[in-house]
Amino acid sequence: MNPLLGRLNAYPFERLRALTQGITPNPALRPISLGMGEPRHPAPALVEQALVNSLSGLSNYPATAGEPALRDACAGWVRRRYGVTLDVATQVLPVLGSREALFSLAQAVIDPTRPGATVLCPNPFYQIYEGAALLAGAQPAFANSDPARNFACNWGQIDEATWARTQLVYVCSPGNPTGAVMPMAEWQALFELSDRHGFVIASDECYSEIYFGNEPPLGALSAAMALGRDDFRRLVVLTSLSKRSNVPGMRSGFVAGDAAILKQFLLYRTYHGSAMSKTVQMASIAAWGDEAHVIANRAQYATKFAQVTPMLAEVLDVALPDAAFYLWAGVPGGDDIRYSLDLLAQYNVAVLPGSLLARQAHGINPGAGRIRLALVAEVDECREAAERIVAFTRSWQP
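The structure corresponding to this sequence follows.
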């Protein structure tokens, strides 16, 4: 077996399952889960119909680069959403959801023969970043989120020696689990560091269409254009339909950016076996071409957050995030694991302890003392969960 497999850490939900063994949730209350960040709104009818209309595509092997019509649809959405024009032949590539591409990109761009190969991740973070680094033969390093700066990554924690070893930086904006959006100043600083040290930036933007203000979140491509980086050098953006269009089971997304990197990534993918079914491609074209269902989806999340956030703010350290569908809440006493286990046992509500989403770095675990609540269920279920959390917290003894 590949010895690097032994370096992988258990996934947060595996660790949580181990912690909850032996706990019997209150049987008088129906179970409610705010733990898994899986969209639960219905899939759009136009996407379902497009799948049915395209079943003949199952009879063909798909091209790894995707159909020209799909690349056109992806580039068209980028143009409408960000005002950025991409070369559909060289700067856009369909992928099987952002998770698959986040992992495989590291395998394509990391040179493990260079001493001290390092991948820099936000902290807390989506654990695929760490696993991708480890299986690429690199060492993960972490930039902690800063609660005093709306949970922005503290890139200043990273010393020059670490920057010099870094080959890939993962960023997540809007962030999981914090919902923080990177502003232009942070992008400029990161681009300048990339120019100085030569690392690739992988921008995970799968939550970009779930936001609560009047302005959509700034994306890496539009930030690069505004800063005169229209060649998108050393930048790859990854996004998907899972959250935007409530179709996580389709496993459909795309990457865009530096043409030289995408050329090599395509070469890797022809061996990796990651071509998207033509049936899914046709449904993806329908999804990327329609905004009405996205607007309706965003409105559903806005309704939930508007009702639930003030309730929880009475007992937890929590506020409306910039974007995404998570609340990142501080718990009384600071013991996020004990709080989560007691909540499950007494009120049958599952949440994810924040410390399981982070690593000890720079002297702290930046997820400790917080919980992640995924408001993915319908409004009534989210309200009921919030009511239970309020009741539990008022009686809980840290």
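The domain at 60-290 is CATH 3.40.640.10 (Aspartate Aminotransferase; domain 2).
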